[in-house]
Structures are given as structure tokens and as C-alpha cells.
Design a protein that fits this description.
Length: about 210
């Protein structure tokens, strides 16, 4: 009996578009061996069942993308529903990048729906998305790490080049090379990327 594999991609994240590419590639490869259900998570937090043959360009101009909207039900049989029919998966491939797809939010939802999924569980995802929490865990377990400091609104002593990063978020989005405190304050004040906090670490030359 063939396995049914779900693939979820997109999501309300700055990495939405690259997630679409990852999801479509996963769908294409897995469809050679399994029954695949493609789930598109839109930027405005809605869910759609989409055709397995779609290309990335279809998500820019094809209105059929939004034809089969899914509902989430939290009843006695929670899960994703297309009209009154519940979707069933043996496992769901998480092809999301950044944001709620990687920070434990999606994992929490899938736990409620009792759907098996790939990648870290809810707690691990939350820790790994928090750069300072992950750094602390690694340091406490004796692993070599670059020292990180939380950025605050008080006067900071910055001597030399440092790397500024959003405390939460994936990829290299929001990463800046800085060498003075006023620049740090200006960046974190004027960008939503640092709304949940920021960390700095010493810049390593020739690394």
C-alpha cells in the first residue's frame, strides 16, 4: 500500500518564496514513489490544496492556486479539511523556511492534529530559532561557540567589528556588520526584524 506524504510550504515568513521552491522540488521528487498532497501556506496565513504539477511562477500569477481553500478544524477529529473531507497523511514534510514554520508554531499545530512530521519537535524548534537560547545550551554543554551578547537599549561598549543578528529568525536575513553602538541602536529601532530582540557577536577575520 502506497504511503501518503504531505508537503507543506510557504508560510507568513520573509523566506516565503524560497520555501515554495523547496516545497515544489520535494513534491516533484516524492511523487515518483508516493502519493503526495501539496499544501500551500499563504503569506496571509491561509491554507490551500494545490496541484502537484504547479511551477514556482504559478504562485505569482495563477489564481487557481486559491481555488481549493482548506479549513482547520479543532473538533473530535482535528486536522485539515477540504470542505467536509479530512486530509490524511502518513507523514508531513515541513518545507517551510523561517518564521512560524521553523520556530515551533507549525510543529505545535501538527501536534494538535496528531500528524507526524519531519524535522525537530516543538521544543527543539523553539530553542533552535532563538539564537541566544541555542548559544546558551551549546555553551553549557561544553561545545565551542562564539560568545554572544543580548543587545539592550543601554550604552554598549563596542570595540572593533561585530556581527548584529535578529535574535529570532532563520537564514542570514537581518545580519549586519557593525563597529559602533549608534549604528546598532539605529538598526534595531528602524527594522521590524529586531522587534523581538537582537544579539551581537565578535566578527572573526578570515574565517
Amino acid at each position: 500500500m502506497s504511503k501518503t506524504i504531505g508537503v507543506v510550504f510557504g508560510g507568513p515568513s520573509p523566506e516565503h518564496d524560497i520555501s515554495i521552491l523547496t516545497g515544489l522540488q520535494s513534491v516533484r521528487i516524492l511523487s515518483k514513489k508516493y502519493d503526495v498532497i501539496a499544501l500551500y501556506w499563504s503569506k496571509n496565513n491561509e491554507w490551500y490544496l494545490v496541484d502537484n504539477e504547479y511551477e514556482s511562477v504559478d504562485f505569482l500569477s495563477n489564481k487557481k492556486i486559491y481555488k481549493n481553500k482548506l479549513e482547520m478544524k479543532f473538533n473530535d477529529d482535528p486536522g485539515f479539511y477540504q470542505k467536509r473531507k479530512k486530509l490524511h497523511f502518513d507523514v508531513l514534510i515541513n518545507a517551510c523556511h523561517g518564521g512560524p514554520g521553523e520556530d515551533g508554531s507549525l510543529q505545535s499545530l501538527l501536534n494538535i492534529f496528531r500528524i507526524k512530521y519531519t524535522g525537530p519537535d516543538q521544543i527543539s524548534a523553539q530553542i533552535c530559532m532563538d539564537k541566544y537560547a541555542f548559544y546558551t545550551v551549546m555553551k553549557e554543554n561544553g561545545l565551542p561557540v562564539i560568545e554572544k551578547k543580548l543587545v539592550n537599549t543601554e550604552e554598549m561598549n563596542i570595540d572593533g567589528n561585530y556581527v548584529l543578528k535578529p535574535r529570532f529568525g532563520g537564514s542570514s536575513i537581518g545580519v549586519e556588520l557593525i563597529n559602533d553602538a549608534p549604528t546598532v541602536q539605529k538598526l534595531i529601532t528602524n527594522s521590524d526584524l529586531y522587534s523581538q530582540g537582537a544579539v551581537i557577536e565578535k566578527y572573526l577575520e578570515n574565517s
